[in-house]
Amino acid sequence: MDRKVRKINKNDEPIIQLVDVVKEFEDKTVLDNVNLSIEKGEFITLLGPSGSGKTTILRIIGGFEWVTRGEVKFFGKDIKDLAPHKRDVSTIFQDYALFPHLNVENNIKYGLRLKRIPKDDIPKSFYNKLKVQQKKWTKKAQTEMKNLDKTMDQYEKLLENDKLSKKKRDKYQSWIDDLDFKYSYWENYKDLKTEDYEKRYLTRRITEKEMDNDVKEIMKLVGLEGNEKKNVNFLSGGMKQRVALARSLVIEPEILLLDEPLSALDAKIREKMQILLRDIQQKLKLTFIFVTHDRNEALQLSDRIAVIRDGKVEQFTTPKELYDYPVNKWVANFIGDSNFFDATFVKGGKVKFMNKTFDTIHEEFEPGERLDALIRPEDVMITRVKSRAKLIGEIVKSTYGGSYYNYDVQVKDKIIYVETSSKHNVGKEVYLDWDIDSIHLMKKDLKLEAEEKESKIENE
Ligand SMILES: Nc1ncnc2c1ncn2[C@@H]1O[C@H](COP(=O)(O)OP(=O)(O)OP(=O)(O)O)[C@@H](O)[C@H]1O
Ligand SMILES: [Mg+2]
């Protein structure tokens, strides 16, 4: 579809930027200063346990939920005041949300009725008029924003007073939050007015025939050809999800929000849909923000993953970085099965755990500092040479994983997980070795330690 409506707002700023976003439901803080900066064309995944705030972040970007505080920027402009349909965003939900009374084709066509494209012969004067108007709108918005700034400064000064009662403080803060929403309106004022103008003078609805073409093209893209007239109620889960995808894509959004769209599908269809999603995202150069709590799905699909924990972004980086350099034990645990050791930094290049001192590439910690050491199962080698053994243990369990074996190796009172292609028998004594860069050292995760202590006390 190359008849794309000219889109406003384009520049080099991130396509989405959340700045210090706070979301409170009644007294509960659900998002606690979330910062995320997403570039155009990225496949971003929000990964985290149930209740961590993934859906809330998505709903805030989609405009279905208001922030309590903070900014939601789209190409640099705060859009937190904009209604969902004014945002260049489309959402796909886990339960498809198709219209049961419409067939496949008409489900896809649904959103297209609102779509507009440029008129064919537009007098040049219309564009000139727009330019003049835009100057006026910009000026008006600037004046309004300046006034708001002044008022906000006054409230902020009031807040600086330490002796304020909590009630007063909350009141001033809520005034500031309100003003911030008004500010967002004026930030987008020129664009909104421009859109109105375009609607009136520069664009038109698309015709029934153009609609048919768009639908045909998109059906081909998502692999739905031949199913035009089918009743959506009788489609399989995978096919339903394709219809939902087509319906979202056909209106050509800049950003697609996907909230666990594949979690209801069985493994095989799920894999197929993963490939389809990634293909389409790259082909159309769209920005995808995808929610899952399946770490493998996240690692396979994403350009970058934001790990969400208790309403905070714990780490935001590429799958490889996340796997190789998790910021703490909690993230490491969430991303892959691992061996963790309570460790103490000895000095640059030396670390102690399991009562032994090992070489490490890490230099950055303080002597005596308590750390978490991580070694991935696939980095542990079973060697024949006893003199190279870093640890000696006994295989107590073995499972075959297709092309490799997983072993549980008992070393003193600890089980060490080993993944390797060589076959060994349960009961055998083995010598464990690893490369110097296989030890990942991380600062102790105090929050997790406290939680672990608590659950230990509860279990006693
Ligand atoms: N409308 C609401 N009112 C009150 N609390 C809410 C509301 N919506 C969400 N919450 C709370 O906010 C927290 C985050 O919810 P959210 O749905 O964003 O989590 P999630 O990461 O998407 O979880 P899941 O993986 O289970 O979908 C939860 O504790 C939830 O109970
Ligand atoms: Mg959710």
Automatic annotation (TrEMBL):
InterPro entries reported for this sequence = AAA+_ATPase, ABC_SmlMolc_Importer, ABC_transporter-like_ATP-bd, ABC_transporter-like_CS, Mo/tungstate-bd_C_term_dom, P-loop_NTPase, Transp-assoc_OB_typ2
Task: Please state every residue range assigned to the domain named ABC transporter.
Answer: 16-335
Which ranges form a coiled coil?
138-165
Which SMART domains has this protein been placed in?
AAA
Listed PROSITE patterns: ABC_TRANSPORTER_1, ABC_TRANSPORTER_2
Which key words are in the record? Answer: ATP-binding, Coiled coil, Nucleotide-binding, Transport
**Superkingdom:** Bacteria
Q: Name one GO molecular function term.
A: ATP binding
Q: Where are the transmembrane segments?
A: none
Protein name stated in the entry: ABC transporter ATP-binding protein
Q: Which organism is it from?
A: Metamycoplasma neophronis
